[in-house]
Amino acid sequence: MERLQKVIAQAGMASRRKAEQLISEGKVKVNGKVVTELGMKVAASDKVEVGGIPVERERKVYYLFYKPRGVISAVSDDKNRKVVTDYFPFVEQRIFPVGRLDYDTSGLLVLTNDGEFSNLLTHPRYQIDKTYVARLNGIPQRHLLKRLADGIQLEDGKTAPAKVKELSADKRKQRALIEITIHEGRNRQVRRMFEAIGFEVQKLKRERYAFLNLNGLNAGEFRELTAHEVKQLRTLAETGSLR
């Protein structure tokens, strides 16, 4: 369900403010009836008309994308850098990333044109697990990793408990691969968490988002999520469980 004025604006028929004016003036119909209530929400199945002209609504689409490093998680960039939507030249819908991955971070990113779905997955009260693999310039001892698992104080507050596991350690090169799972989405959070225990992240990749993974994809490739996967993500966000 989306607000009526938002639906009109997304269809490109008027700005959000102009759409509100049209509704107030009685120029908008929903399922054949004039509507003047600004707060009204409409479903995908509802028929909306503005001045007698049907509103053509975009089909909701959902993509899983393997973001390469050196790409902005945005639909445009004022510095003319490459953005994630550059990889979707043949997608007609106006898609945008759900959350973000840092410029120097690669991995799994979901893109959609469904604002309600995006908010569901990114709102702080919905705890969606995100799993990263970090390559560090050193080998942290277990008690330091435990600090991350318990939650560590950053400049913007203490982090929620995390799941942390050492995948490998190269004593000769003095570097380690650490897997960390968090459900928050603060700016550069994983990098800052490791910095807080004295380690620089040399390379960072998001391997999983909830139950989704990158199997079968190379950097820069994407696939459309199945209807079942979209339903599972909604259920997980709303209930905290896939059941």
UniProtKB/TrEMBL annotation:
Residues 2-65 form the RNA-binding S4 domain. Keywords: Isomerase, RNA-binding. GO terms for cellular component: cytosol. Its EC number is 5.4.99.-. One of its GO terms (biological process) is enzyme-directed rRNA pseudouridine synthesis. One of its GO terms (molecular function) is RNA binding. The keyword RNA-binding applies. InterPro entries: PsdUridine_s_RsuA/RluB/E/F_cat (IPR042092), PsdUridine_synth_cat_dom_sf (IPR020103), PsdUridine_synth_RsuA/RluA (IPR006145), PsdUridine_synth_RsuA/RluB/E/F (IPR000748), PsdUridine_synth_RsuA/RluB_CS (IPR018496), RsuA_PseudoU_synthase (IPR050343), S4_RNA-bd (IPR002942), S4_RNA-bd_sf (IPR036986). The keyword Electron transport does not apply. Pfam families: PseudoU_synth_2, S4. NCBIfam families: pseudouridine synthase. Belongs to the pseudouridine synthase RsuA family. This is Pseudouridine synthase. It comes from Bacillus aerolatus.
